[in-house]
């Protein structure tokens, strides 16, 4: 059974940075395109960033382009999201998962951007 464990969230002031991590166990992590998603209560989950299996290509939501960077470490079976120049509108619970045919969702990690 696949387990996704997100971490690295917290409270940060506008303009600050955070690095999220997602540890994946129980699956062949390296063969799948992966993504970071976020969700605000009462709204649909949105895709923040994606990365192909070989890290050759990444995509970003327009709202985070130029500020966030997605990466992956196959040896550690870990997905990362470096978030810089954070804004209050980035406040959400962040999740990782496959791009398609998602596994069960992890608990997510809360990111709160506030002064």
Ordered list of secondary-structure elements with their pairings:
Layout: E1 3-7, E2 10-12, E3 18-25, E4 34-39, E5 46-51, E6 58-60, E7 68-73, E8 78-83, E9 92-98, E10 109-113
Parallel strand pairs: 2-10
Antiparallel strand pairs: 1-3, 3-8, 4-5, 4-9, 5-6, 7-8, 9-10
Extended strand count:
10
Low-confidence residue ranges: none
Q: What series of H and E elements makes up the topology?
A: EEEEEEEEEE
Structure class = mainly beta
Indicate the overall shape. Answer: globular
Could you describe the largest sheet, including whether it forms a barrel? 6 strands, mixed
Helical amount: under 10%
Strand content: over 45%
What is the typical, i.e. mean, pLDDT? 95
Number of helices: 0
> Using only CA atoms, what is the Rg?
13 Å
Strand order of the largest sheet: 2-10-9-4-5-6
How far the N terminus sits from the C terminus, by CA atoms, comes to 40 Å
